[in-house]
Design brief:
The protein has about 375 residues and is α/β, with parallel strands linked by helices.
């Protein structure tokens, strides 16, 4: 398979595929990454505790049986750990602190190493939250946003890892984005078990940040559930402990799909209530009552403006053709995974492959969102 199969970038960093190794305290170091995640597009090491307060908390957690990383020189540790990861994946480091200064220094190290800094607003262990770090940052948006702004002044690519369903998720995401973060790493945890797929869709529709989703990814079906709701990348954690080949298997499966279909995280159709706004690329002409109307309103389009926008994009492309389809153009045709003899007949006549069709649909989706009358999010990634 081609090394350039995926075109996934954040800032100046390019990922070879959309599968990541997530941080796990006391587990995800360079040795673990090299043994289990050489095929990944991204490995995130850590979490590392950068100041005296978080180091003390880590010691207390270790004393009660939790796994954690300890170091008297955490900044030197993360610098050496980044260098020790085998060539291939982009490297990130997940860090915690109760003060901004060590975070700035860690950001400078990551920036120099062409790595990602990930701010941990996720850890829910009492020793960490009691000192105002980890998940406690979700309830102190002023501090969190101030830290994001100052960290971004270093020029580092910044990820923020958060846990879902703790606070108002949409407000949280929009505040994180407006403060300048590049990546949202979402643990889509919900009460009970499994991932909150509806929340992933709602967050995708509220932000332009690069979105990494995590929680219960143990096979390609679970990953696909997240991709079709808007995840740009999925990360795996505990599943790797049970299956050392999990990341390689996920990479193989999603790469095969990208070759066949051309859009690895193509959304579901919005008419079923499961597709995010990118799914408007597959919608019919809005001439009858349908969920398309509610969705185009989110972007500020009238029905006519939406129709005009789609036809503006397809003019001069292969999507302009299709007189024999329902609405006279491939602009209005559905996802390739849904059978349609009218659409497929046109594709065959044009000599347009499934993957080429879907790549054009992805460009159409981007065009619809980028030209919205009421844009979502503030990120330029």
């Amino acid at each position: 398979m081609s090394d350039n199969l995926f075109d996934i970038k954040v800032g100046e960093l390019s990922f070879k595929n959309p599968i990541a190794l997530a941080p796990m305290g006391g587990i995800t170091n360079s040795c673990f990454a090299n043994e289990n995640a050489t095929d990944a597009g991204l490995v995130i090491l850590g979490g590392y505790n950068l100041d005296a307060a978080t180091q003390k908390a880590a010691s207390e957690m270790l004393a009660r049986g939790r796994e954690e990383f300890e170091s008297n020189e955490p900044l030197k540790l993360i610098e050496s750990e980044i260098k020790a990861v085998n060539e291939g994946p982009v490297v990130g480091v997940n860090v915690r602190s109760t003060t901004i200064e060590p975070l700035i220094e860690a950001a400078k190290i990551a920036k120099h190493a062409d790595a990602i800094l990930e701010l941990d607003a996720h850890c829910r262990q009492k020793e960490i939250t009691d000192i105002g770090a980890g998940q406690a940052l979700l309830t102190d948006l002023t501090k969190l946003c101030d830290w994001i702004e100052h960290i971004k002044e270093t020029g580092v690519v910044l990820s923020v890892k958060v846990r879902a369903n703790v606070v108002d998720d949409i407000e949280l995401v929009q505040q994180i984005e407006s403060s300048g973060a590049d990546i949202l790493h979402l643990d889509a945890m919900k009460e009970g078990s499994g991932a909150d797929l509806n929340l992933i869709k709602n967050i995708r529709d509220s932000t332009r940040m690069f979105l990494i989703c995590n929680n219960s990814v143990t096979d390609i079906d679970a990953a696909q559930d997240m991709f079709t709701r808007g995840a740009d990348m999925v990360s795996v954690a505990r599943g790797v402990l049970e299956d050392s080949g999990l990341i390689s298997n996920l990479v193989h499966s999603i790469s095969a799909q990208q070759e066949d279909m051309g859009w690895y995280n193509a959304p579901k159709h919005v008419c079923r209530g499961e597709g995010d706004l990118r799914g408007l690329a597959f919608c019919c002409l809005p001439v009858k009552p349908c969920p398309v109307h509610n969705n185009i309103k989110k972007l500020g389009y009238s029905a006519q403006e939406f129709a005009d926008t789609k036809m503006e994009f397809v003019k001069g492309t292969m999507l302009e053709y299709g007189d024999s389809t329902c609405f006279g153009s491939l602009a209005w045709c559905c996802k390739i995974s849904k059978r349609c003899y009218l659409r497929d007949g046109v594709l065959e006549t044009l000599g347009l492959s499934d993957a080429e069709y879907m790549r054009l649909k992805k460009e159409l989706a981007d065009y619809i969102i980028n030209n919205a009358k009421k844009p979502i999010g503030t990120s330029k990634n």
